Amino acid sequence: MGGAILITVLVLILLAVAWRRPARHIVDERVWTLWLGVGFTLSVLVALVGYGLWVGERILWRDDGALRVAARAQQWGWEFTQPGPDGAPIVTKDVLYVPAGRPFDIEITSSDVIHSFWVPRLGGKMDAVPGRINVTRLTADAPGTHEGLCAEFCGIGHSFMRFDVVVYEDGAYPDLSLTQAETGGQP
Ligand SMILES: [Cu+2]
Prior knowledge:
Elements: H1 2-20, H2 29-58, E1 67-74, E2 77-83, E3 89-93, E4 95-99, E5 104-110, E6 115-119, E7 123-128, E8 134-138, E9 144-150, E10 162-168, E11 181-183
């Protein structure tokens, strides 16, 4: 947004200058073409592509022993498998528990139609496709609760297909008493 405003204002200023300028040429057009047309555009593009690669690299999973959790979508809810209070995996409905400050890989799949896993505050949106496991890496920096939702229209209950990501202080597992949790799931 900031960059877009900056460029828009710059273009408007140049337009105003051009409008008021007498017919004689103060600056050679080649300077404008070279520095603004090519130089400016290329540097913005290189910066954006560099940033995109850096961000993209961060959400790729790697085999480095990071925490692994699983999300299974079905019309119209989410089932999460994650480590429980004693480390053994537990399965929960519509709530995912993850520790703060540690990257975790999430295996996303679906039992019926295509859904999409999205937690806007954590970034990274990934499709949940039946018969396929898509893995993405996310990190929650601080404890708190983030809203998540299905981002792919999947039927009449799609808009209710929401969930919470509860981020807890690493080592201090939150109270599960309000959650429907069952033990014994496979991560
Ligand atoms: Cu949906």
